[in-house]
Amino acid sequence: MPKKGPExxxxxxxxxxxxRAKKPLFTTVADIxxxxxxxxxxxxxxxxxxxxKPKSVAVVPGKVLGGGIIGHAxxxxxxxxxxGAKQKIEAAGGKCRSFKWLTEKGCKDxxxxx
Length: 114
Prior knowledge:
By secondary structure, this protein is α/β, with parallel strands linked by helices. The protein has a single domain (9-112), classed as CATH 3.100.10.10. 41% of the residues lie in helices and 24% in strands. The chain is built from five helices and five strands. Strands 1, 2, 3, 4 and 5 form a five-stranded parallel β-sheet that branches. Strand 3, helix 4 and strand 4 form a beta-alpha-beta unit. The N and C termini lie far apart (31 Å). The mean pLDDT is 90.
């Protein structure tokens, strides 16, 4: 019988950490991460720039792609980052973070993008 659910260890660890936090945003993100890979969102940098404010946190339960530009510093939490996206986020003064960082910080102002 084929295995169900995510296979990457980092995604499994992120799901466990998020479910333990027991906050509505974190459980929603954990549910999205538990879904098949083809259902996870891919978000461009331009969408992050449009829906976030400077110094806020954007949560992407999928991959961040490099399309567009970003003009303000944002901490972005995602499974994976395209090389161009990572460069653009860091050039704007933001940082690319992990889901463990998100639960440790306990962000109240995080924006879920999908």
